[in-house]
TrEMBL record:
UniProt KW keywords: Calcium, Cell adhesion, Cell membrane, Glycoprotein, Membrane, Repeat, Signal, Transmembrane, Transmembrane helix
Primary localisation category: membrane
SMART domains: CA
Gene3D superfamilies: Cadherins
GO biological process: adherens junction organization; calcium-dependent cell-cell adhesion via plasma membrane cell adhesion molecules; cell migration; cell morphogenesis; cell-cell adhesion mediated by cadherin; cell-cell junction assembly; homophilic cell adhesion via plasma membrane adhesion molecules
Membrane-spanning segments: 779-804
Superkingdom of the source species: Eukaryota
UniProt source species: Xenopus tropicalis (Western clawed frog)
Signal peptide positions (record): 1-21
Protein name (Swiss-Prot/TrEMBL): Cadherin-17 precursor
Cell compartment(s), UniProt: Cell membrane
UniProt GO cellular component terms: adherens junction; catenin complex
Amino acid sequence: MSRLKALFVLSFIQTMILVHGQLQSKGYLEDKEFTIQEEGRSSLIYQFLPRKLTSKTFILDGETDGVIEVLPHDGWLQTKGPLDWEKRKVHKLTIRTLNETGITEEGPFSITIIVEDINDNRPVFNQSEYKGEVREKYRPGRPFVRVYATDADDPSTPNAQLSYSILQQIPDSNPKYFQINNITGDISVTWNGSQLLTVGKDYNLIVQVSDSAEHHFSNTVMVKITIKENIWVAPPPITINENSTEPHPMKITQVRWNDDEALYELHQRDRYPRFPFSIDAIGDIYVSEPLDREERSQYIFYAIAKSRNGLFASSPLTIEVNVEDINDNPPVCPALITIFEVQENEGIGSTVGEFQASDADEEGSFNTLLVYRILEQIPTIPFNNVFSLNEFTGQLQLQRSTLNVEEVDEYILKVEVSDSGRPTSLKTICTIQVNVIDINDNIPIFEKSEYGNVTIKEDTQLQTVVMEIQATDDDQPNTGSSLIIYEIKEGDPHKMFIIETERETNRGYVKIAKPLDFETMQEHRLVIHATNPEPLVAGVAYNDSSITRFTVFVMDVDEKPYFNETLYQKQVKEDVPVGTKIATITAIDPEGDSIRFSLQGDTRNWLRIDEYTGEMFTKALLDRETESHYRVTVIASEKTNPRMSASVLFNLFLEDVNDNPPRLAKSYFGTYFCHPVTKPESVVIEATDPDAQRLTPFKFSLTPDEKDWVIVRLNRTHAKLTMAHSQFEMKNYDITVIINDQGIPPLESEVHIPVSICSCTSKNECEASPVESLGLPSIGMALGILFGTLAVIGVIIAAVFISINHKKKKEGKADGADAMNTGEIRPLSS
Ligand SMILES: *[C@@H]1O[C@H](CO)[C@@H](O)[C@H](O)[C@H]1NC(C)=O
Ligand SMILES: *[C@@H]1O[C@H](CO)[C@@H](O)[C@H](O)[C@H]1NC(C)=O
Ligand SMILES: *[C@@H]1O[C@H](CO)[C@@H](O)[C@H](O)[C@H]1NC(C)=O
Ligand SMILES: *[C@@H]1O[C@H](CO)[C@@H](O)[C@H](O)[C@H]1NC(C)=O
Ligand SMILES: *[C@@H]1O[C@H](CO)[C@@H](O)[C@H](O)[C@H]1NC(C)=O
Ligand SMILES: *[C@@H]1O[C@H](CO)[C@@H](O)[C@H](O)[C@H]1NC(C)=O
Ligand SMILES: *[C@@H]1O[C@H](CO)[C@@H](O)[C@H](O)[C@H]1NC(C)=O
Ligand SMILES: *[C@@H]1O[C@H](CO)[C@@H](O)[C@H](O)[C@H]1NC(C)=O
Ligand SMILES: *[C@@H]1O[C@H](CO)[C@@H](O)[C@H](O)[C@H]1NC(C)=O
C-alpha cells in the first residue's frame, strides 16, 4: 500500500495535478498549479511539506473566495465547498510558512487553481417569446427571425455549444413550412412554406435549444409567426398621355419585393428600338421622356427582382404601359396640290373627285375625325361657290353653273381640313386644282385596223415587244379626253400579253407577259380596243375605228426534255441485293421525241439506269457506313438530238442494317497490374461499331472456361472486367471477351484484352514495362539464343571435324561413314 502511494507521488510530483474526487498527493513547498472541477464537494487537494524544520505554520493568501484554505499545521491545501467556474475561472493564491515567532520562514510560493467547467447551466433564451413576420412567397432559406440563447458554461466546451431545433410547428404540416439553422438560430421558410403560406394564417413554433454535453440541458421558447401578404405583384396597366409636359423622368408605377434587399431590373419583352423606362433601387418605375403614341401605343416589359448573389428572387412581373393619344398630329394633305379634271360640259351635281386628307392620331377617335371646308375659290368666275365639298366625305361636286373652258380653264380651291380633337382641334390648309378640260367629243382612231401576222418563237423572252400600235385622239392634249387606254378584248384569255402606253404619244407596246407555249396555244388572235378615261359626250360613241387586230403565231422550238419531278429521292436498306430496282425516273420531251437516260457522278459504281425506261437498279452491294447519302445525276436526252438534254439530282438514302460486328473502341495493349495482386483490380473496356442502330446496348460475356475474371456491363457501351480472385501469377494474361451488338440480326465478335501482371517499381510501374517485355528478349530468351548459337557453331565444328575424319577413313576404309555421322552429331546438337 505504501509502495503504491510512493509511486503516485513520484509520477505527479513535478506535474500538474488533476484532482478528481479523492486523489491526493504531497510534495515540498514550491510554485504549483492545480485544475479542479467546479461543483465538487469539499476535498483535500495537496499536502505541502516544509523544507525547514523551523517552519511551523502554513499561511494561504489571495483569491480564496472563502472556499480554499490550507490547514496551518500539516500543510493540506483543500476546498471547503464547491468552486464555481461561472464566478471565477482561475484562483491566484500564495502559500508561505512562518517560524515559531511568526516570521516568514519559506515562500511565498504561487499557487494557481484553474476551475474546470462542468455542465451545470441550462441554455437560456434572451427573450421569453419571439415574434416574426414573413410574407407569402418569401424566399426559402432567407431568415426572417432569429432566436438567441446563451449558456453560462465554458464556451470552449460542449457544455455551452448550443444547437437549435424546431420541436413543433402549430398548426403542423407535412412537409414543414419552417426550418431553423441549428447553429445561428435563424428561422426561415422551406420551399413548401414559400409556396403554401397564406396571409391570415399564423403559426407558432416551439423552438428548442440544447447544449452538446453528454448529459445535455435544453430549453424551449415560443416563436409566433405572422404571415403577411406578398407584395410582389404586378401593378395594374398604366396609361400615360403621350407628349406629356410633366417633368421627366416621371414615376409611373412601382413594384416592391417582399424584403428590401433586392436588385430590381427591367427587361424588354420585345426589342423596342427605344426603351424609355427605368427602375430605381426601391422599385419605382420611371418613364424617362415624353412618349409618342404614333411611334408606339403600348409597351410591355418585365420587372424582375434579383437577390444580391444574382439569383432571381421570384418570377418576373409584367408591366403594361399604354400610351394615350392626344391630338398632336394635324391633318395632312394628300399632296401639295391635288389635281382634278372636269369636262366643260358636265352637268350640275356631277362628281369632280374625292378629296381625302389623313391624320396620324389614333384611328377612330375624334383626333382623326376630319372635317373639310372650302375657304376660297380662285377665280370667283362666273361666281363664288362653283364647287361644293362634302364636309365629311370630301366629295367635290359641281354645284352651280356649267363650266366654260374658254373663260376659266383652272380653278384653285383652298380647303381647310380640321380634326375634331379635344380640347384643341388642329387645322391644315390644302390646295385643290380643278382643270376644266375640253369635252371628249373625239374617239381614238387606230392608224390601222389590222396589223397583220407576227410569228415569234415560243422561247422568246418575257417583256419582248411583239407589236407597236398607235391610235390618235383629237381632243385637248394632255387631258383625260385625249389620253388613250388600250385593252385586249379578245384572243388572250390567259393574259399572256400586256400593253404599255407612252403618255405623251399614246403609242402602245404589246409585250409578252407570260411564257408562250407552242404545245398549248399556237395562235393568239388579239382584238384591241382604244378608249379615253373621260366619258364621251352624248351623241358620240366608240366605233370600229377604235378597234384593231393582229395575230401572234407561236413558233415551235425544239425544247429540252423535262423530268416529271424536280428532285428524286429514295431510301433503301443498305443490304438490298445487287440488281434491286429502286426507282423509275420519268422524263418527257415536249416535242414527243423518245428519251435516253444515263447517269453521271456514280462515283462508287453502285447504280445503273435503264437507258429506255428510266428504271434505276443497284449494280453493287451498298454500304451505309461508306456513304449514307449517295447523290448521282440523271441525264435525259432526246434520241434524235442528244444535245437537247436535261439533268436532275437523284438522292439515295441508305438505311442502316446491322452489318458490322462490334469491336473494341481502342487498344488495351499495355494494361498491367502489380504483382502480388492485393485487391481485385479491374479494367473498363469500351465497345463500338459503325452501324447506326446503336440504341441497343452491347452484351459482354467471357468464355465459359474463364475462371480468373468476371465482366459486368456499366452502360450501353462500357463494361468492367474485374479479377475474380487475387492469386495471379507474374505473367501476361490474354482475356477473351465476347461482345454482342444485340442488333437485328445480332452480330458477335471475340476480342482480346491483354493484361500483364508484373513486378513493380516503387512508383507502381512495371519494372520492365509490359510493352517492352513483349518486344525485347528477356534474360531467359537471351540465354536460349546464346545456347542456340553455340549449338550451331558446335554442329559446324563437328561437321568439319567429321568430314576430315571421314576423309582420313575414306583413305583407309570406304564404308560405314553414314552411321557414324548421325551418331556423332546427335549429342552435340541437342
Ligand atoms: C524566527 O526567525 C527570525 C528571523 O530569522 C529570528 O529572529 C527568530 O529568532 C526566529 N524564531 C525562532 C523561535 O527561531
Ligand atoms: C437577443 O439576442 C439577439 C442577438 O444577440 C439580439 O439581437 C436581441 O436584441 C436580443 N434580445 C433581447 C431582448 O435582448
Ligand atoms: C446542424 O445542421 C447541419 C446541417 O443541416 C447538420 O450537418 C448538423 O449535424 C446539425 N447539427 C446538429 C447538432 O444537429
Ligand atoms: C413540398 O415539397 C416537396 C419536396 O420537399 C415537393 O415534392 C412538393 O411538391 C412540395 N409541395 C408543394 C405543394 O409545393
Ligand atoms: C408635343 O406637344 C407640343 C405642344 O405641347 C407640340 O409642339 C409637339 O409637336 C408635340 N410633339 C409630338 C411629338 O407630338
Ligand atoms: C395571216 O395569217 C393567216 C393564216 O395563216 C392568213 O390567212 C392571212 O392571210 C395572213 N395575213 C397577212 C396579212 O399576212
Ligand atoms: C367612226 O366615227 C368617226 C367619227 O366619229 C368617223 O370619222 C369614222 O368614219 C367612223 N368609223 C367607222 C368605221 O364607222
Ligand atoms: C413521275 O412519274 C412516276 C412514274 O411514272 C410517277 O410514279 C410519279 O408519280 C410521277 N410524279 C409526278 C409528280 O407526277
Ligand atoms: C459509360 O460508362 C463509362 C465508364 O463509367 C463512361 O466513361 C461513359 O461516359 C459512359 N457512357 C455513357 C453513354 O453513359
